[in-house]
Amino acid sequence: MTHLDKLEAQGVHILREAYKEFKSLVMLWSIGKDSTVLLWLARKAFFGHVPFPLMHIDTSFKIPEMIAYRDRLALEWRLDLIVGQNTAALAAKQTFPAGTLSRVDCCKALKSEALRHTLSGEWPRLRMDHALGRYMPEEKREAFTGVIVGVRADEEGSRSKERYFSARDQQHEWDVSDQPPELWKQFKTDFAPGTHVRVHPLLDWTELNIWEYIERENIPIIPLYFNHGDGCRYRSLGCYPCTKPVESEARNVREIIAELQSGKFVNIAERSGREQDKEDGGLETLRRGGYM
Amino acid sequence: MSTAKNEEPLSVVMAGHVDHGKSTIIGRLLAETGALPQGKLEQVRETCRRNAKPFEYAFLLDALKDEQTQGITIDAARCFFRTAQRRYILIDAPGHVEFLKNMITGASRAEAALLVIDAKEGIRENTKRHGYMMSMLGLRQLSVLVNKMDLVGYSQEVFEKIRADYTAFLERLQLQPVSFIPVSGMQGVNIAARSAETPWYTGPTVLEQIDRFRNKEFPDKLPFRLPVQDIYKFTEQGDERRILAGTIETGSIAVGDEVVFQPSGKRSRIQSIEYFNGPTKTSASAGEAPGFTLDTQLYVKRGEWMTKADQPPLKTSTRFRVNLFWMGRAPLIKSKTYKLKLGAIRSPVKLVDVLAVLDATELSTVANKQAVERHDVAEVILETPKPVAFDIVGDIEQTGRLVIVDNYEIAGAGIILAAEAAHSSTLEEHIRSREIAWKNSTIAREERTASYGHGAKFVVFTSADAALGETFAQTLEKQLFAKQFKTYYLGIENVKRGLDADLRAEGEIHDDHIRRLGELARILTDAGQIFITSLAGVDDYDLQALALLNSPHEIMVINIGENSFNRFEPALNLAADTPVTTGVEAVWNLLRQRHVIVDYQI
């Protein structure tokens, strides 16, 4: 088995375990390369099917190509896609682009808060109606207690402390210092009522592995990741006011892999184009409060 | 750069007693392999100079923990670096006893280990405990770093003494380290480069040693073992395949191979190996997680093992002897039911005996303990209500390992040393004492039969299709009632919502539904009723338990269509497409044959 075969088998095993153990399960899909690989792994695990809904939190500041790509795959792969949004904050213009919030606070409002209330079913949700081919408001909104997320341990400090199955309390808080043991493919799958679980099938993957796997499986990836002749590309995708492209000549998956293996990015962090990480406390502060 | 070499990272765990210098050695390794971001080393030296603190390589780790923008990630858990040979994931296992569960988590992910011993302090409590854990986790690639050699004047004598003592300790655990290396993290001795300070040492440096470690190979030569993780049928998407899914633990399998499921004993053949978006597979081996279709429609449940018919089977028992390490806050005690996880098995489990509690640091036995405390290692006998299948760790390591869940947490980890003869089960003991104490009614059974015009019976319909079983059962009830017989149909859902509403304990819910239903049957058959129920998805052991619980009265099992039991002989087998009227008529005939219903009295 190659290292990609091993990573794939491990991810598949974790997804099947989550599907078996948790009743109300959802997978977060940010449209980026990692969560799209995660979605592909679900199709691997369930032989072409995705037997649980996907959720996308739309901040309304996503790069437009991302939304078009999301809707295209949702229809093509017949995904049960749920979309949530912090409509109140957007209506009140309480955002960073409106000049009323810091970057970190904007992330909290449009991502963490929106996610929390969309998962619980408190806030309105849109759900893809495949018969109609468009999103419809969801009437009966189930609360999800198991959430599959595409975080990787190599992304930054706090993510490297994660478990494959990680408990969050009712406030979505994470006790980093007291985490359950995981060994011999046995994970924490028993939870007290009121807690919820995050499942991390990509924990052991690196940025390079993600691209190697995209190449091997020929996974359709949003073209924003490639240089289209202007000498820059996105290395990580987010909201356009806070995500900058990086200078790169890589025009396709093969060139991105070459760049990561021996080129200029060997010692530069992937999230270096994400401005919110540079603010006080950055990602660790966001993650303790429920950011993915 | 050649990509073939560094494709596959190797996971190495750093273990050892607290303050024996793990962080310093990691800092050195990172600095000397060029894994640090530019300027980091100078920055930390400068901070130390300004604070009038002597520079230490361990500070590098602390500095990197807070760093958000560097190219590599380091924290208490994992860091990534590469040598000319390949990439590494270095797992820093905490040396403090409080963090043993983190140490176990880290070490279980590792393929090799570096264990650090302070030359001056020598072997300490966690030096031994960590050695013990590695042996239990099956980590065989171990190198021991005797650190802080500068503090003992690079004395060969000190080094050899530690080597001899620790080798002797590990020998008792059947663990042989691949090397002992005299190092100084502080002075950079024998980390990346050989040092003139230890001319008497001719072995590898730490860097050379880790480059010599080998990636874990999947055991594909051992007998085939697949824990059935789940069974899928995505019919609503127009997919008619019935797929068994799981990750192959050991061995290999090919299309056409005859397979046996344990513990049910069912047999079939592999029809296809399913894998999404890849070339057609005709075989699969250890480490892979494909799907399988069988050439017969079998009802197999999660938790069974798929094995090959021509290979040695797993052991099957309700009792087994286990070497157990306990991490739970509350001790492991005899009067409580826990949850066992072994492969895909999820079963209630009880501690029946503590044979010995080992002091993991001394390997000596503490006598007369009745419970297993936190951080104890103990040899215990565990018992499950139904037989489970497993391997002895000495035969097949991968399928002889289990964890125990207490209060939602993985609290214990163990390896199975032996299958124990299942002497009379807890249930049999319970029935025996219940029947001895049972106060018989002053009305004899014959008197009731004469008065009611029929005998008593517990009739159980089993079917994979719950609704079908219920239809048969309710039709029978209606017809019996129309003849003025004393009869009652009780669906399991009513039992769950009523009598069993208090059941919350993990894992034991299913068995307790069965137990209470069986107790109820004992009472109602004693009351002269024809008591009817229908159950879906029950196995051999559920039916045996019901038969036992209903004794001294007899059970009558009517099976409709396919089912998930194999050995239990139903009184009547009906095809799934049997019309209800025909089926119920057959049950009437059976009740007549068994003299439950006596025709001339109707």
Describe this structure in words.
The complex is a heterodimer of chains A (292) and B (602). Chain A is built from eight helices and ten strands. Chain A has 292 residues and is α/β, with parallel strands linked by helices. Chain A folds into two domains: 3-205 and 277-288, 3-Layer(aba) Sandwich (Rossmann fold); 207-275, no CATH class. Chain A has an eight-stranded mixed β-sheet. In chain A, strands 9-10 form a two-stranded antiparallel ribbon. In chain A, strand 1 (25-28), helix 2 (33-45) and strand 2 (54-57) form a beta-alpha-beta unit. Chain A starts with a helix and ends with a helix. With 602 residues, chain B is of the alpha/beta class. Chain B folds into four domains: 3-212, Rossmann fold (3-Layer(aba) Sandwich); 225-308, Translation factors (Elongation Factor Tu (Ef-tu), domain 3), CATH 2.40.30; 316-422, Elongation Factor Tu (Ef-tu), domain 3; 441-601, Rossmann fold. Chain B is built from 15 helices and 27 strands. In chain B, the strands form five sheets. Chain B has a seven-stranded antiparallel β-sheet with strand order 7-15-11-12-14-9-8, with no helix packed on it. In chain B, helix 13 packs parallel to helix 14. The longest helix of chain B is centred in the last third of the chain and has 18 residues, at 509-526. Chain B is elongated, with a radius of gyration of 31 Å. Chains A and B meet through helix 1 and helix 2 of A and strand 2, helix 5, strand 21 and strand 22 of B.
